[in-house]
Amino acid sequence: MARRKHSSVEEEAEIDMTPMLDIVFIMLIFFIVTTSFVKPSGLDYNKPEASQATKKPSANIFIGVSNTGVIMMENRQVDIERVTANVERMLAEAPEAAVLIQADQEAKHGLVVKVLDNVKAAGIDKISVSAGNE
């Protein structure tokens, strides 16, 4: 008697997912590295217009001053007395830090000057103020 050659276990075709996952991870790394990370100040404000405004390199520390006198740092409200301590803490994390003050055009001039004084007291010399043409 002739025996039939039937395999009792059917072989299933499998797709190797490893190359696809490698490509996905490489693309993920590419997009993370090429993305510019922007730290918003947390305030909606109207910049004052300036005809002589110049572009500066991006700053590491952003301070927002609203028209109602609210000071924002790292997306949280800060009292004027705590600006120096917060800037000193950020300066310890990034010693070459620069500060960008984003003040509303209706903000009180005295408050913006106090913020500038507190930043200077923290030991930072690179301070910029955002204007309308930036």
From TrEMBL:
Specify the protein's topology with respect to the membrane: Single-pass membrane protein; Single-pass type II membrane protein
Kindly list the residue ranges recorded as spanning the membrane.
20-38
Give the molecular function GO annotations: transmembrane transporter activity
Q: Which UniProt keywords apply?
A: Cell membrane, Membrane, Protein transport, Transmembrane, Transmembrane helix, Transport
Q: Which Gene3D superfamilies match?
A: 3.30.420.270
Q: Which GO terms describe its cellular component?
A: plasma membrane
Q: Which domain of life is it from?
A: Bacteria
Question: Among its keywords, does the record have Coiled coil?
Answer: no
Q: Which GO terms describe its biological process?
A: protein transport
What subcellular locations does the record give?
Cell membrane
Q: Which family does it belong to?
A: Belongs to the ExbD/TolR family.
Question: PANTHER family under this entry?
Answer: BIOPOLYMER TRANSPORT PROTEIN EXBD2, EXBD MEMBRANE COMPONENT OF PMF-DRIVEN MACROMOLECULE IMPORT SYSTEM
Q: Give the protein name, as stated in the record.
A: Biopolymer transporter ExbD
